[in-house]
C-alpha cells in the first residue's frame, strides 16, 4: 500500500501540502526498502532521510505558526516533539538483521498517527493561515 496525500488531507497551505506529499513519499521509500527484506544497512538511508525530513518539516510548520501568531503553537509543538521522539525510538529498535514484522507494524502505526495529525491539527492550522 502506498501512502498518498489525498484531497481530504490537504490543508490548503501550498508549502505545508507540498512537504506533506514529500513526507509520505519518504515513508513509501522506506517501506519499499523494508519490503526487500535486507538488513538494517540497506534501509538506513531511507530511515535517516525520513527522520531528517520530519524534523525539517515540523520546524517549517512551527515557523509558519510563529509568524502568524497561531494560538495553538505550544500545543502543536508538543505534539511534534512527542512524534519525533517516538519515531527515533522506533527507528533505534530496528535490529541489524533488518526490521521485524513487529517493527514494521510500529512504523505503520506511527505513520497512521501522522496522517491523523495532518487530518486534524494541520488542517486546523491551514484554515487559520487562510484567514490571515
Ligand atoms: Fe503539524
Can you put this structure into words, describing what you see?
It is a single chain. The chain has about 130 residues and is mostly helical. It has a single domain, classed as Hemerythrin-like (Four Helix Bundle (Hemerythrin (Met), subunit A), Up-down Bundle). The chain contains 4 helices and no strands. The mean pLDDT is about 95. Fe (ii) ion binds near residues 76, 80, 117, 121 and 122.
Give the helix/strand layout:
Elements: H1 14-35, H2 40-67, H3 73-93, H4 101-130
The protein binds fe (ii) ion.
Task: List the keywords.
132 residues; mainly alpha; Four Helix Bundle (Hemerythrin (Met), subunit A); 4 helices; 77% helix; 0% strand; elongated; binds fe (ii) ion
Biggest sheet, open or closed, and with what strands and sense?
none
Strand and helix order: HHHH
Give the strand content.
under 5%
Radius of gyration: 15 Å
State the name of the first-level CATH class. Answer: Mainly Alpha
Compute the average pLDDT. 97
> Segments where pLDDT lies below 50 for 5+ residues?
none
CATH superfamily: Hemerythrin-like
- Ligands, ions, cofactors: fe (ii) ion
Tally of alpha and pi helices: 4
Helix content: over 70%
Shape: elongated
- How many structural domains does the protein architecture include? 1
CATH architecture: Up-down Bundle
End-to-end C-alpha gap: 37 Å
Structural class: mainly alpha
DSSP strand tally = 0
CATH topology: Four Helix Bundle (Hemerythrin (Met), subunit A)
Amino acid at each position: 500500500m502506498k501512502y498518498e496525500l489525498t484531497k481530504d488531507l490537504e490543508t490548503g497551505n501550498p508549502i505545508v501540502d507540498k512537504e506533506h506529499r514529500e513526507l509520505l513519499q519518504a515513508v513509501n521509500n522506506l517501506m519499499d526498502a523494508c519490503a526487500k527484506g535486507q538488513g538494517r544497512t540497506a534501509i538506513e538511508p531511507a530511515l535517516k532521510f525520513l527522520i531528517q525530513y520530519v524534523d525539517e518539516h515540523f520546524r517549517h510548520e512551527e515557523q509558519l505558526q510563529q509568524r502568524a501568531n497561531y494560538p495553538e503553537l505550544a500545543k502543536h509543538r508538543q505534539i511534534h516533539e512527542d512524534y519525533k521522539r517516538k519515531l527515533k525510538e522506533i527507528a533505534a529498535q530496528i535490529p541489524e538483521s533488518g526490521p521485524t514484522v513487529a517493527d514494521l507494524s510500529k512504523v505503520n502505526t506511527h505513520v497512521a498517527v501522522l496522517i491523523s495529525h495532518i487530518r486534524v491539527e494541520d488542517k486546523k492550522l491551514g484554515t487559520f493561515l487562510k484567514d490571515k
